[in-house]
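REVIEWER CHECKLIST
Item 1: Sequence provided? yes
Item 2: Single chain? yes
Item 3: Sequence as submitted:
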Amino acid sequence: MTRPALSWNQARHVLCVRLDALGDVLMCTPAMRALRAQHPERRLTLLASPAGAALAPYLDDVDAAIAYEAPWIKSSADLGPEQHRDWLATLAGHGFDAAVIFTSYSQSALPAALLFQLAGIPLRLAYCREKPEQLLSDWIADPEPGAMLRHEVQRQLDLVRHVGAEIADERLAFTPVPADIDAVRGRLRQAGIDPDGRWLVLHPGAGAPSRRYPPHYWQTLVRELGERVRCPLVFTGAAHEAALIEGIRGPAQAAMHSFAGQLHIGELGALLSHASLVVSSNTGPTHLAAAVGAPVVDLSALPNPRHTPWRVPSRVPNHDVGCRNCERSICPQGHHDCPEKLAPSQVVDAVCSLLKQTEPYRRKEMRMA
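Item 4: Structure as written out by the authors:
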């Protein structure tokens, strides 16, 4: 195959593609930083789901975003052929020099590669299992999951390294804007919480049933946190998770506050950036916490080593059981309380251990910010 005349080092307008969840986009941010650093005048456009595209204002290396609900990705949208053709024509009008298609090993890059070839994008990079022929100008035979398993962040860094893009700073990226920081600090003060004091964020909801820490475990967990950590607890979640949180809180307690359904993504990032520590059952808030430098206790059921908190102090408490690393959304054995979930007292031990490790340094960083 004849390679395009344009090289990756010359590409000035690059499309970065990650079409699934918010957390997946965040795990691509180190690779996007590497792409941005490869060319002094490079412009990056993020192509993502509506939830992923909402991150763009908080990603310093992203210049613009395009929201697209791709028909080969799980989505609630049902666009007709004419709408997809119109979208393709719009994409072609941007004049992209290159497209980097970020995927997990369970996804295929070829549907996107075909669209980008039809849109006239000369350079197209992705992992692929099949020989892509003309669909990709540059590709890596996907070694996962057979030969290896990597953290998702490392997978994307290795992809862009294939075309010469490397960076020393491999942290996730998310920069809260001053207005969101001010709004969150004001909300905390209204709740009687010192924004610069000790307080924890708890995120009990999760989209996949297999990731959920049982509500009765949460009830015990918050009670034991109140006894051992003795600080305000701030609950976060979507509006539809407000009832779950109220059930966990039980009768209103002065040290427990729910912000469920009250924060947009920028405010959530600002909140997590100020917390002493975050306890989360959901990968999106877990990666967002890591992106703003907050210590994390990750309670995702059956923790997947490819999605653990990246480059921040963390604890991932779990048992070493036979079904470890299962990626099913629903347990195939019908477990409602997955055997890998630890008792609340063990989670509190993880919280106390992580606070002892991080709190003196984190408070110092907050004072200097």
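Item 5: Key structural point noted by reviewer: The longest strand covers residues 13-18.
Item 6: Recommendation: ____
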